[in-house]
Amino acid sequence: MQAKLNELFSALSDATRREILIMLLEDDMAVTDVAHPFDMSLPAISKHLTILSNAGLITQERRGRVNWCKLEPDGIRDASVWMLSFGQFDIPDIEDLERLIESHIDLTKKN
Amino acid sequence: MQAKLNELFSALSDATRREILIMLLEDDMAVTDVAHPFDMSLPAISKHLTILSNAGLITQERRGRVNWCKLEPDGIRDASVWMLSFGQFDIPDIEDLERLIESHIDLTKKN
DNA sequence: TCAATACTTAACCATATGGTTAAATATAAT
DNA sequence: ATTATATTTAACCATATGGTTAAGTATTGA
User: Fold this and answer.
1) Checking CA distances to A79, which of A8, A22, A47, A91 falls within 20 to 30 Å?
2) How many of the other CB atoms lie within 10 Å of CB of A79?
3) CB A72 under 7 Å to nucleic chain D
4) Is A95 on the interface with B (CB under 8 A)?
5) What is the CATH T-level fold of the domain B2-110, as seen in this structure?
6) pLDDT tens-digit map of B60-92
7) Would you list the domain boundaries of chain B?
């Protein structure tokens, strides 16, 4: 359990990986397309995807030469359970939330 | 913002640090008392506390030779905002939550 | 004043992380 | 059959992380 939480929070502790997760909210994507917006080599992205996969935050399914990445909706659950049980998890300022969701939309439009 | 989130999730990605946070839910504690339940040197705990402090999850206030550690209730907020905005943040199985809260109680009793 | 207490800092170590480039693999298209 | 595409694997590198022990610094108590 603790090891799983370590892996989860650790996976979330990198901005590139968080952006990838947000991109995958929109739709499933091929590895190359995931890599496209980032100023980073393909192997680097491939590694990030492996980390997200091991943490259970995404799944990958190869069809032909394309490896499709998709969000695993339950992946974040253990982390959210921990945060809720930690108790300091109030509903945040609605404006913070709106601003952040807005920034996600900008991000996906950027592609 | 991203750097702050990196720091926050990274601080949460270590089981020792998460346990420390849960201990501090109960009450403020001196560094030595924080260290007591762990099979780890004092400098190691001191480092963990610095990391929690830099992430904004706790504050430390020295009075005399005792450095009091206290939870910073708003510290986790940015992480919770991100998770909520990520959207896959359902209220989890109530039994999962109860089991986890129970395990926290056990943990604090252990001291 | 001297010793004990409550730490922090320094120096070190092994392993992990996040990136790179080059080479390998498998599939699809020509 | 050859080439292009999509991706992974390997080898490498610099820096970060999480621990250690030993030494240093205040503060308190005797």
Assistant:
1) A47
2) 24
3) no
4) no
5) Arc Repressor Mutant, subunit A (1.10.10)
6) 999 999 999 999 988 998 998 898 888 755 555
7) 2-110
